[in-house]
Structures are given as structure tokens and as C-alpha cells.
Amino acid sequence: QDQQVEVTPLGRHGICVSFKEPVKAVTPGQAVVLYKEDQCLGGGTIDCVFFQGKRLLYAEGKSPQSTQIEF
């Protein structure tokens, strides 16, 4: 499902994607692809996930909501 995001550069090798609303089941290793209307702007593999400014650690079988991802 499409989500509105804000993208912030993290130096030369990554970006931070901040979701306007929390998103379920975002997990390191998944792909994120950025579009503007029908145009693909780019994408990458999720490296880490944050919620309310704290990095989330994953336990087997758990999938917390998130508001930011980095890759």
C-alpha cells in the first residue's frame, strides 16, 4: 500500500525514510521503493527500523510498527 514519506539523506551511502503514519511489519532486509506518482525514484534494502526515535530490535515472531527506516 502506498504511504506518504519524508526522505532525509544520511551522507553518501544512505537515506532515512520517515513515514507520516506508523507502518506495520517493516523489517530489516526488506526492500523499499520510492515513487513519485508513476515514476520510480529509487530504492534499497532496509538496514534498520526506528519507532519514536528508538532503534527497534526484532524477536522471532514479532513485527512492531515503525515510523522511520534507514538504508
Topology summary:
Layout: E1 5-9, E2 15-23, E3 31-36, E4 39-45, E5 48-51, E6 54-55, E7 66-70
Antiparallel strand pairs: 1-2, 2-7, 3-4, 5-6, 5-7
List key phrases describing it.
7 strands; two-stranded antiparallel sheet; globular; 5-stranded antiparallel sheet; 71 residues; mainly beta
Q: Order of strands in the sheet with the most strands? A: 1-2-7-5-6
Q: What helical percentage do the residues reach?
A: under 10%
* Rg of Cα set: 12 Å
Quote the beta fraction: over 45%
Q: Which spans have pLDDT < 50 for at least 5 consecutive residues?
A: none
How many beta strands in the DSSP annotation? 7
Average of pLDDT: 81
Largest sheet, in brief, is:
5 strands, antiparallel
Q: Helical region count? A: 0
Shape designation: globular
Description:
The structure is a single chain. The chain has 71 residues and is mainly beta. 0% of the residues lie in helices and 54% in strands. Strands 1-2-7-5-6 form a 5-stranded antiparallel beta sheet, with no helix packed on it. It has a two-stranded antiparallel ribbon with strand order 3-4. β3 and β4 (39-45) form a beta hairpin. The model has no long low-confidence stretch (mean pLDDT 81).
